[in-house]
Design goal:
CATH architecture: 3-Layer(aba) Sandwich
Structural class: alpha/beta
Shape: globular
Oligomer: single chain
Strand order of the largest sheet: 3-2-1-4-5-6-7
Strand content: 15-25%
Order of helices and strands: EHEHEHEHEHEHHHE
Helix content: 40-55%
CATH topology: Rossmann fold
Largest sheet: 7 strands, parallel
CATH class: Alpha Beta
Radius of gyration: 17 Å
Number of strands: 7
Length: 252
């Protein structure tokens, strides 16, 4: 098992990429704390991991709230006694449309969930990692942060911020044996698909997006989970400050 004896936190674990990451981590031997703002999804995935023989707990968490992230750390330490990996997967977007049509509240929500969450997990988990002698952050960004499309300008900017922040964290925290990496998914058939496309989810509309992906398909939650598995494992012990595009060649 590639994550045996590891303790991991996965945010946004109640569906989509986060669900796949949490299940993959548990299958590979990690004890997993699932965090999600949605109780139903979080409890469902936790129970499914347990039914499959894994060790998982759930804490309802709004990753944009300081008190919630502090409580997430406390719950993880109480349940497992430590933490080795934090996967910042929780994210949101605005519907694909012209940039000036996005309301201020939408902008603030996107940056709170996608960017402030990185600040808050760093604030609370870096001291714990330093105390333990090291740790791993994996931040789920997006190909939108390096090859942006029109219509998602403010989302694109938030993911660009995640990418450069992750690289800066890696440079600053390396002497503490804290690794920080990004995973950049291309578009995927998750719950936010219609928002990303800005049009109804039809085969014809999907084809317009897959046409720009050399391998000819969307990313899947398993694709992203496998990338996170590698980056969280000891196989990636000398990998920090990297951004791994899981995009079928989209960013070439």
């Amino acid at each position: 098992m590639r994550l045996e004896n590891k303790i991991a936190i996965v945010t946004g674990a109640g569906s989509g990429f986060g669900e796949a990451i949490a299940k993959t981590y548990a299958r590979e031997g990690a004890r997993v704390m699932l965090a999600d703002i949605g109780i139903v999804g979080g409890l469902r995935v936790t129970e499914e991991i347990r039914q499959a023989g894994g060790d998982a707990r759930f804490v309802q968490t709004d990753v944009s709230k300081n008190a919630d992230v502090a409580a997430l750390l406390a719950a993880t330490l109480d349940a497992f006694g430590g933490v080795d990996i934090v996967v910042n997967n929780a994210g949101t977007t605005h519907r694909n449309r012209p940039m000036l049509e996005i309301e201020e509240e939408e902008f603030e929500r996107i940056y709170a969930v996608n960017v402030k969450s990185i600040f808050l997990t760093a604030k609370h988990f870096v001291p714990q990692f330093r105390k333990q002698g090291g740790g791993v952050f994996i931040n789920i960004a997006s190909t939108a942060g390096i090859r942006p499309r029109p219509g998602l300008t403010w989302y694109n900017g938030s993911k660009g911020a995640v990418i450069i922040t992750s690289k800066s964290m890696a440079a600053e925290l390396g002497p503490d044996n804290i690794r920080v990496n990004c995973v950049n998914p291309v578009i995927s058939a998750t719950g936010l698909l219609s928002e990303f496309m800005g049009v109804p989810d039809t085969p014809e509309n999907r084809q317009k997006f897959t046409a720009s992906i050399p391998l000819g398909r969307f990313s899947t939650p398993s694709d992203i989970a496998n990338a996170c598995l590698y980056l969280g494992s000891d196989e990636a012990a000398f990998i920090s400050g990297a951004c791994l595009e899981v995009d079928g060649g989209r960013c070439v």
